[in-house]
Specification:
Layout lengths: L2 H14 L3 H27 L7 H4 L3 H22 L2 H7 L4 H33 L6 H29 L2 H21 L3 H6 L4 H5 L14 H25 L3
Length: about 250
């Protein structure tokens, strides 16, 4: 079976899961509404001349990313829970195209939802304030939000393929994205704290944040780190998919 047919099949599965559309609409609405709250608060406090930083506009990304990650995990792990993985892999014995197809089927809408929600938030800031983030900053941040969520979705699918257990994969992804950066940063050893910057969340989020001269990674370097996490997880998942029984 060609990869195009596999991808089409996975896309059909994705859009027919009733929970997916509301969740990705919630991603757009969450980024847009939460992104405009700082502007509303600043305007109420200081008038229209107040300014809002780009990182404040996208401050909700820490929980919005979970709205993307959890459906991505469910999309793959639920096949093992329901037993439909046997049928899927019988149709595609090589298995790797199924993994890549699922990643693409989730990553594309995740990226579009992230970019759309962030763009609406920045447009709202431009309408509400006289000193919104600069246009070039807003454009890069909106595009970066989409790229970030797309990579998070693909990483989550790969982790679900590695773990296969629905609840276990959810907990592992949530821990990696939200708990690990704080836990590692609390360890009072300098090199360990520096290593926290190379975790997927703090590294990947640099792609939509303004340049920080104090950061150990550039915005593109941080995104490459996130892509490396995603690629590594995909490689491990691919090997395990081929090696393990369904």
């Amino acid at each position: 079976m060609s990869f195009g047919r596999v991808l089409h099949g996975e896309w059909i599965k994705f859009v027919t899961l009733r929970s997916n559309v509301p969740v990705f609409v919630a991603v757009v609405v969450g980024l847009a509404v939460m992104g405009m709250l700082p502007a509303i608060a600043a305007g109420a406090d200081s008038g229209l001349s107040a300014g809002v930083a780009a990182q404040d506009v996208l401050g909700s990304m820490s929980w919005v990313q979970l709205l993307v990650a959890i459906p991505a995990v469910v999309f793959l792990a639920s096949e093992y829970t329901s037993g439909s993985a046997r049928v899927t892999f019988l149709a595609v014995p090589t298995r790797i195209p199924v993994l890549l197809g699922k990643q693409l089927a989730v990553a594309v809408p995740a990226g579009l939802a992230g970019a759309t929600g962030a763009a609406i938030a920045f447009i709202g800031n431009a309408l509400l304030l006289e000193a919104p983030p600069a246009v070039e900053v807003a454009m890069r941040a909106a595009a970066g939000a989409g790229l970030y969520l797309a990579a998070i979705a693909a990483l989550s699918v790969a982790m679900a393929a590695i773990i296969r257990h629905l609840v276990g994969a959810m907990l592992a992804v949530a821990a990696l994205l939200t708990v690990a950066p704080f836990a590692v940063a609390l360890i009072p050893i300098e090199w360990v704290q520096r290593a926290a910057a190379w975790l997927p969340t703090p590294a990947g989020q640099l792609v939509f944040l303004p340049d920080n001269l104090d950061a150990s990674l550039s915005w593109w370097g941080g995104y490459l780190v996130l892509l490396a996490w995603m690629a590594g997880a995909t490689l491990v998942a691919g090997v395990l998919l081929r090696a393990r029984d369904v």
